[in-house]
Structures are given as structure tokens and as C-alpha cells.
Design goal:
CATH topology of one domain: Immunoglobulin-like
Distance between the termini: 136 Å
Number of strands: 8
Order of helices and strands: HHEEEHHEEEHEEHH
Number of helices: 7
Helix content: 40-55%
CATH architecture of one domain: Sandwich
Radius of gyration: 43 Å
Largest sheet: 4 strands, antiparallel
Length: 244
């Protein structure tokens, strides 16, 4: 079959089925358009979400002990989000623990920001509550569970409400070996400062000063000593050869 006959048959097929092909192409174009629109909406939504994450605050509250004494603990409040938190308020309550939990709650909230809130809490900023000593009333405190409801706003006005659960039993079995490095360094610096203060507070300081005159005199003495040794050796050699 010649090439011209092939083209003729193709053209005839297209002419006869132009209506069906038009419908088919339209359907394909419609489906492609719908998929494109859907992907575009997903991309816009994801971009919006990423922008919100980069500007929204996120407040966490955890239990944290002192580096130098693990039986002294306090609440650590930190904004781990990338945006500032505005008008932060705290509402604390006891879930379990009875009277011991009430005492624990009272000790933690001696820090005033738990009562009056925070007008501005920047990203990465943190605050600490008042501490409690677990050695006092240990059995009751270690079984206490507290709830802290947190309400705050983002810079764009979005409102957030969260709840942090403080379960003191998580501290069971906690211990510490040795002294933390920063605490040891601080103690060493304090000791050095104290010793230096003792030295500078004295009226007279015994010192040995090595001056230019001392250096010159020492060089002359060394030179004289070498010359004396040389003369002595020369006399001994002269006496030896004379006797032989």
C-alpha cells in the first residue's frame, strides 16, 4: 500500500469520527484541568500552612530539676514555636494527689506570671516557676498529677487553647552522679576570685624583682667563674708538662 493511500484512509477515518474524537479530547482536557486545579489548591494550602507554622507560637510546659540538686524541681515554660505568643494565661488545677498536690500547686504558682499571665512571650523565650523540694512530703508529691490549661494568641490574632499534664511520678528513680560541669566551673572561679581578693586586700605583698642590674651582675659572675676555671686548668696542664 502506498503512502498516499495510508494518509487518505486516515483522513477519511478522522472525518467520519470527528464528533467522537472531539468528545474524547474534551473529556481528556477536562480531566487534566480538574487534576491541575486540585494540585494547585493543595499547593496553596501547603504554602499557607508553612507560612502559619513559621509565624505561630507553641507553648510547652515540662518539669525540670536543678543541675546541682535533682530533688529541687520546677516548671519550665517555653515558647518552642517560631512566632510570639500574646496574652498568655494559665489555669492550674489538680487531677490527683489530694492535699499534697495542692501544696505542690501552691509552691509552683508563687511565681507571679502564673497569676497575671504574659503579655508577650517571644519565640525561644522561657520562664521558670518557683521550685519545690521533693525531699519534703516526697510520697505525696511524687504521686501528684496537675493540669495546666494554656490560652494565648498569635501575632495575627489566631487563638490557641492547650492543656499540659504534669505527672510527678515521671521523676521516680531519677538520680545524679557527680557534679555538673558548669557548677564545678562556677565553684572554681569563685574560689579563684576569693583567693585573688585575699591577695589584693593585703597592704604589703612580698615579691622578688629581677632587674637589669641583677642580670648584668649575674652575667659578670658567670664570666668570672668561667675565666677562673680556665686559669686553673691552664696551670694544672703547665704543671703536668713541667713535671714530665
Amino acid at each position: 500500500m502506498e503512502l498516499s493511500e495510508v494518509f487518505t484512509q486516515v483522513f477519511n477515518f478522522l472525518n467520519k469520527n470527528s464528533g467522537a474524537l472531539s468528545v474524547l479530547f474534551t473529556a481528556v482536557l477536562t480531566v487534566s484541568t480538574v487534576i491541575y486545579v486540585k494540585l494547585t489548591l493543595m499547593l496553596v494550602s501547603e504554602t499557607k500552612r508553612m507560612r502559619e507554622v513559621q509565624t505561630e507560637p507553641k507553648i510547652e510546659i515540662t518539669i525540670k530539676s536543678f543541675d546541682f540538686a535533682v530533688n529541687f524541681v520546677r516548671l519550665h515554660v517555653k515558647n518552642i514555636g517560631l512566632g510570639p505568643a500574646m496574652n498568655v494565661s494559665f489555669t492550674l488545677s489538680v487531677i490527683s494527689g489530694g492535699e499534697a498536690a495542692q501544696v505542690l500547686l501552691k509552691e509552683f504558682t508563687q511565681t507571679n506570671f502564673f497569676k497575671v499571665g504574659l503579655k508577650y512571650f517571644g519565640p525561644g523565650q522561657d520562664r521558670f516557676s518557683h521550685f519545690t523540694q521533693l525531699g519534703q512530703g516526697h510520697e505525696g508529691k511524687i504521686e501528684s498529677v496537675l493540669a495546666i490549661d494554656i490560652a494565648y494568641e498569635s501575632a495575627s490574632g489566631a487563638k490557641y487553647k492547650e492543656q499540659a499534664i504534669i505527672d510527678m511520678s515521671e521523676l521516680k528513680g531519677q538520680y545524679q552522679l557527680g557534679t555538673p560541669d558548669l557548677h564545678s566551673i562556677a565553684k572554681s572561679l569563685e574560689k579563684i576570685q576569693s583567693n585573688f581578693a585575699d591577695v589584693t586586700s593585703r597592704r604589703k605583698i612580698n615579691t622578688n624583682i629581677y632587674t637589669y642590674e641583677d642580670r648584668t651582675r649575674e652575667e659578670e659572675e658567670i664570666k668570672s667563674w668561667h675565666e677562673g676555671n680556665l686559669d686553673t686548668k691552664q696551670r694544672r696542664m703547665h704543671h703536668f708538662f713541667s713535671s714530665t
